[in-house]
Fold:
Amino acid sequence: MATHRTKMLIIGSGPAGYSAAIYGARAMLEPIVVQGIQPGGQLTITTDVENYPGFADVIQGPWLMEQMQAQAEHVGTRMMWDTIVKVDLESGPPFRAIGDSGDEYIGDTLVIATGAQAKWLGVPGEQELGGKGVSACATCDGFFYRGKKVAVIGGGNTAVEEALYLTNHSDDVTLIHRRDELRSEKILQDRLFKNPKISTLWNKTVESFVAGEDGTLGHIVLRDTVSGEASMLEVDGAFVAIGHAPATELFKGKLPLDGGGYLLTEPGSPKTEIPGVFAAGDVTDHTYRQAVTAAGMGCMAALDAERFLASRED
Ligand SMILES: Cc1cc2nc3c(=O)[nH]c(=O)nc-3n(C[C@H](O)[C@H](O)[C@H](O)COP(=O)(O)OP(=O)(O)OC[C@H]3O[C@@H](n4cnc5c(N)ncnc54)[C@H](O)[C@@H]3O)c2cc1C
Structure:
């Protein structure tokens, strides 16, 4: 078991972690990225990415993340294929973290970029048709359903926002909810009910997603929670919008979290309440949740980490 020391320890290897690494390495902080169980992060489980700036043609999510990793390595980042299982933030800086491998990581600064995972329904067809009609992100994939028929599953703010967003692309959006009223804010509900492009299906749960002849999503099998009757809804795209789970288990009781479990930072900044510890990307962002915003926050975290270290040398 080894001990690895660095001026900037980064937990997570999505766009936030890799961007922090690129900026940190170029500021001579010799960063270490502990990649976790999903090297490259969420974009490695998608296909087409059309909204990351800098690419005129459609690119693939896994390819984009390989490029970010290679860029971070070229400028001097050390990649560790390990998952952090314990952190000690109280006695820092330096901050200590223990990997699943038993290795110890010591960073004069710490960037938390552990991201989030969309919550899924866990029904048949959902994973198989992921990227082939089933998605968890309307901002990411709505554009692919221009002029098509889509459904959103959920009843909270995210679901209503996703349904409203999809009306930019589709005139036929169905919101499917398992109860007979929404949980979302009243103002969002008003906008939803006023929108002629959106219809609602109440008291319905999704039993399965079924492929059509071309292998992409053909229809959704629904079950009425009151009558027990099964029904079918033909759609081209289905957006599961039942929330996200930020990867913050490690930090419970060590850093403040909001009601949704996201790490709290100073408004407009990646600074947490512990000087020298920064949070970037989806782990702290329940609003935008995009690769480019995560990358931007990673950059901010690295710049602030550099300033934090410089201020200690004064
Ligand atoms: C299917 C899908 C399609 C998407 N399409 C788009 C799109 O087209 N455009 C767009 O802008 N956005 C898209 N997104 C959203 C985008 O992927 C996220 O906003 C972005 O990846 C967030 O980056 P992040 O760096 O904050 O975290 P993530 O990408 O979530 O990465 C988190 C990282 O933390 C690591 N980690 C977690 N816990 C630990 C631990 N204990 N120890 C070490 N490492 C750990 C993981 O291994 C992972 O590497 C999509 C998301 C999904 C799921």
Remarks:
- The domain at 134-240 is CATH 3.50.50.60 (FAD/NAD(P)-binding domain).
